[in-house]
Amino acid sequence: MAVTLADVAVRAGVSAATVSRVLNGNYPVAGATRNRVLRAVEELEYVVNGPASALAAATSDLVGVLVNDIADPFFGIMAGAVQSEIGEPTAERGGPKLAVVCNTGGSPERELTFLTLLQRQRAAAVVLTGGALEDDAHRVALTGRLGRLESAGARVVLCGRPPLADTDFPAVTFDNREGARRITEHLLTLGHRRLGYLAGPQARTTTRHRLEGHRAALAAAGLAGDAARLTVRGDYGRSAGYAGAVELLAREPELTAIVAANDTVALGACAALRDRGVRIPEDVSVTGFDDLPFAVDATPALTTVRLPLHEAGVRAGKLALGREEPPADGVVTCGGELMVRDSTAPPRDA
Amino acid sequence: MAVTLADVAVRAGVSAATVSRVLNGNYPVAGATRNRVLRAVEELEYVVNGPASALAAATSDLVGVLVNDIADPFFGIMAGAVQSEIGEPTAERGGPKLAVVCNTGGSPERELTFLTLLQRQRAAAVVLTGGALEDDAHRVALTGRLGRLESAGARVVLCGRPPLADTDFPAVTFDNREGARRITEHLLTLGHRRLGYLAGPQARTTTRHRLEGHRAALAAAGLAGDAARLTVRGDYGRSAGYAGAVELLAREPELTAIVAANDTVALGACAALRDRGVRIPEDVSVTGFDDLPFAVDATPALTTVRLPLHEAGVRAGKLALGREEPPADGVVTCGGELMVRDSTAPPRDA
DNA sequence: CCCGGGACGGTAAGCGCTTTCTACTGGGGG
DNA sequence: CCCCCAGTAGAAAGCGCTTACCGTCCCGGG
């Protein structure tokens, strides 16, 4: 039925071993022989049987990429970057790798399930993107799974999340805390004193770090007191931002700024404010986080923190293939850049 | 080293065949035996060797998803939908499948390369998303590759693109022509008479169909004359929209509406207009296409055509796994829905 | 009471490739 | 002039799994 190595071998008048060696280029084969083989491959339109070679060589060219939601550009950009990096053939032992993207939807069980599935595929590497769940049971389970993956020969890389305790998997992380501190500081500098915070879901590292940065800035300005009252939680979606802004306004009508955990939440908040006739930034300033492509086109253009998502993905890809050595402590930290745009201004009473 | 089927068999005191049968559930195994096997699997933390079973069974649980750019929500949403569908285990012969997403970046060569890579993996199915290149040589090459994939046992499904000539691969397509016609008609109904068009890249079905729909509406209103002069081409990116709008304004300062090939281009156009002090929609109306999530939060909220991207992806996923029979002609057409928002209004002189 | 057949389980032959290990060749140094 | 090695090629043993193909065992009908 399908063309096999053996068919090519016959056609080229050599042994299967030779064909394999030509195709993998890891053993000397005389020029003439090589050409004969290549021609046979061409003529028969031979395509290697991946599973068979994966089995025989105990390696595959699949790299798993775990994301919360690939439809979200935050993850899309990182996944795309990882893919573009691993798609390039390496010098030694490396045709292009394929990216298997797994949408966990933020569910810890699905995360574990996907890791098992990837282990089953004998993935060459696994990149975990996005914030981690801060749950001890899950952390243990995850550590176990990742450990087994690693001992099965897969490289494990974290991207956009902090290093995993008690492990030394390389990580490319964002300095969420500092970014959040800076953007809140920006608001404080403008003169804001009553700022609400729209936090992400509970028990996520990203959520916590951003919140901590925000609080740190408030504390430095002697404003820690009201922080808890003016913090509303939700998921990272637009409607959570909408609802959160409404709630915040109810709790503190005199609010002059809303700091959102990410751009999407910020947009939801903006929509809520607009619907209530609150002007941005004249009445209330709003900030986002991430600087996804749409932030600049929002109503109004969002002041936010730009995260180098693409670069992080590329680095993660390199680490995943061992093209780059991780630093001694295993952590590559990417800073964010404050992007001041039109959604922030001094408060009216300033 | 790694735990194998044989290890499990020994542990459970049965033969390897029995373990395989328990795991695949496609052959009667007595309850007691089954439990013993399952326990052994558990205790040894056995994980099937995917490549090995793929080799032996001549099937894999990989599904390829080709996209132009996974960072673009247009593709991200479809890819996510495909993935969620194929991630569900099927009744017979079907553990969850994994999605291999391949970023072609719109390059025909990479499209072919990825298809070869997927064939090498013996992918169970391949979903091609996004508009197709209208180039005869490429069409032939593509048809060939897809034919080989299909005869290698992979299902091929088109998603968001029209059926491929001379083939009968099922396709889930968007009615781009009608959507474009409707949105232009909307503008005409508002009284616009001088409309510019920001087209997508040459030789793409999507570009052509949307342009045709636009022109059809113009023709129906007796406005076909100026169409060519008021059409500017670019890629589907934001900066193309920006540049295109500038160009359009230069060609026709009296323009009252700009119809963009998609939301991203529309946003670029909006930015250009804003930078020139042109008000939207008072001075110029702008329309998008696709209704990506950010369209509603744009400045101003974009009038556009909503495409059921998620639904299309799900359908494509079902077709890819044979969970759904394609209609007789092989084409599932998804209509768009006109979303009238704030970026369109009657022209000032109306 | 015997036999046919359904329900299980085992045996073993591959699936298509990689990779030792072995074999052959020709040439240069002893 | 012979031996040995560098340079190539082949033979064959798996890699870990699936799946015919066969036995067994036990049941119920004739």
What labels would you give this structure?
homodimer, 15% strand, LacI/GalR-like_sensor (chains A, B), transcription regulation (chains A, B), Rossmann fold, transcription cis-regulatory region binding (chains A, B), 4-stranded parallel beta sheet, alpha/beta, 6-stranded parallel beta sheet, 350 residues, 12 strands, 434 Repressor (Amino-terminal Domain), elongated, Peripla_BP_I (chains A, B), DNA-binding transcription factor activity (chains A, B), DNA-binding
Give the secondary structure arrangement, pairings included.
The structure is a homodimer of 350-residue chains.
Chain A: H1 5-12, H2 16-24, H3 31-44, H4 50-57, E1 62-67, H5 73-86, E2 98-103, H6 108-120, E3 125-129, H7 136-151, E4 155-159, E5 171-174, H8 176-190, E6 195-199, H9 205-220, E7 231-233, H10 238-251, E8 257-260, H11 263-275, E9 285-287, E10 304-306, H12 309-320, E11 331-334, E12 337-339
Helix pairs in contact in A: 1-2, 1-3, 5-12, 6-7, 8-9, 10-11
The first copy, chain A, binds a DNA duplex (30 and 30 nucleotides) through residues 2, 4-6, 14-18, 20-21, 24, 27-30, 33, 48-49, 51-58.
